[in-house]
Amino acid sequence: MSTKATATTLDVLLFAVTAALAVRCGKSLAPLDERLRLGQTRDANEMVCTVDSCNVPTKPGALRKDVRLKNLYHRATYIIIRHECGEEETGGGDDSVHILVQKRSAQKDYCPDKLDPAPGGVVGFGEECLENAKREIQEEMGIDVSSPGSPHTIRKLFTFPYEDDRVRCWGYLYEVRYNGAICDIRAQEEEVEEVLRLSLADIKKKVQDQPGDWMPDGLHALKLYLQYRHDKRVGRRLLHGYSSGNLEAYGLRPKPEAIFFDCDDCLYFDNWKVANHLTEKIEEWCVKHAGLPEGEAYRLYKKHGTALRGLLAEGHMEHCDDAIDEYLKDVHDLPINDLLEPDEELQEMLEKMDPSIPKYVFTASVRDHAERCLQALGVQNYFEDIIDVRSVGLVTKHSDEAFRAAMKIAGIKDPSACVFLDDSVKNIEAARRIGWRSILVGRVGRDCGKPISSEHSEHDIDRIHQFRLVYPELFTGGSSFGSTSS
Predict the structure, then answer these.
(1) Res. 32 pLDDT band, cuts 50 70 90
(2) Nearest by Cα to 254 from 47, 131, 435, 425
(3) Which of 12, 23, 74, 453 is the most buried (most CB within 10 A)?
(4) 417 Rama sector, left if φ>0, alpha if ψ -120 to 50, beta otherwise
(5) Angle at 266 (CA atoms; ends 261, 269), nearest 5 degrees
(6) For 431, how many CA atoms within 13 A lie in the half-sphere containing its CB?
């Protein structure tokens, strides 16, 4: 027997004798910190793989008792055990997915008696995380995922940081598909008191009713798993720059604090009839009032972002409020009620959205135009406010300044708490630069007439009504467990 094995055996014996004596004498064990200092907890002198806050291993490692006492960063594995038992998941619903949950032994040095939905273990010094996961599930539950031909499989999903007042670690989350019977589970008495088979729906209810019964980091791992599973189901892009898009440092998304809707060609689509009218009005104004040649309005738009900014920058319009207001009023003087009609499907969608999240119209046009569009569609009562070109200081909508101004108006500091819908790939790109999460609405470009897409959006959809299909968590009846937003 090796020296390490001998030491491990002695640790187990010491722990068992101490616990037995306490029980025989009718006394409870000493406080955890004291037992840790005395090395009387299970595996107290095991060498652990410690890391820094960026998950880079520290060369010496540390004793397990010191990791607990000093709350050192370390690596740990978390395993979601899907119990399929030959059954196929039907419809992806939470009632059809079951996982195996451990009730931890009262002898554990961390979270004794707690329910653990993602059992695993602390990674030893020099140990590979995958090997740790395989070993832990074999030792604690008798599930073999290593042998060739085993019906049970294991795969890594992501890595995540976790920190609270008792634990600081980098977790490696794995998913195991277990096809055996519950009676075949051989729980390790020193580690596991009981194994429960629960549906995800049951777990959500139990967590809501008794959150204190659950192991905090295991519960966090499960929430991340549910977010990951949800994103896969709705086909959400994992974009770099967001914590929920980096599987090497995976994090929960914040609940949206506001949802921003573009107005023209987003809240409605009329084959660009309104947009074409606007273009014609701008062209007419530039020729009639500014004396510019035909086509000059488009050149100003391409060079300066908007025709208005071009008119001001190149001296074709007096830079005063009255002149700007007159221009904006003239070019937006359109027969909106003749061009748009009430949209009952849009009304129903907005009605079913989470009422705790305010909705804004964020438009490159003016407030009066947006108000008339909303009234024509019958959705004027669903929005907190309209953020228009005046609100953002006349800057182009696809500028960083416009998005920062919109956040300030909405009173939001965290850009990742903003969800944005727009038909412009330029605007979607600007939103991502700031850190907003976006959906491109419309897959055909107005200028090119060809299919468009955006690598900066989490989803591309054909029309606004499909929003509920890609973001079901924001609607009545959507999941409320698995991330702070979903």
Answers:
(1) low
(2) 435
(3) 74
(4) alpha
(5) 155
(6) 30
Q: What is the pTM of this model?
A: 0.84
As given in the structure block, the two tokens for residue 26 are 């009718």
Supply the DSSP symbol for 124: B
b/e sequence 382-401, b meaning 16+ C-beta within 10 Å: bbeebbbbebbeebbbbbee
Task: Compute CA 82 distance to the chain's CA centroid, rounded to the nearest angstrom.
Answer: 22
Could you tell me the two tokens for 286?
């530039």
Which domains are present in the chain?
33-245 (3.90.79.10), 254-270+340-486 (3.40.50.1000), 271-337 (1.10.150)
Average pLDDT over the chain, rounded to an integer: 87
Task: State how far the Cα of 390 lies from the Cα of 185, in Å rounded to an integer.
Answer: 66
* Structure tokens belonging to residue 41: 């907890």
User: Can you give the three-state secondary structure of 5-72, one letter per residue?
Assistant: HHHHHHHHHHHHHHHHHHHHCCCCCCCHHHHHHCCCCCCCCCEECEECCCCCECCCCEEHHHHHHHCC
- Helices 321-331 and 273-288 pack at an angle, to 10 degrees, of 130
Q: What was the pLDDT predicted at 317? A: 82
Q: What angle do CA 88, 92, 95 make, to 5 degrees?
A: 85
Give the pair of three-digit tokens for residue 299.
């050149």
For residues 416 and 434, the answer to whether their CB atoms sit within 8 Å is no
The token pair that represents 65 in the structure block: 């008792």
Question: Does 387 score more than 90 pLDDT?
Answer: yes
> 4: how many CB neighbours lie within 10 A of its CB?
11
Give the Cα separation of 404 and 481 in Å (integer): 30
How far is C-alpha 101 from the geometric centre of its chain's CA atoms?
A: 24
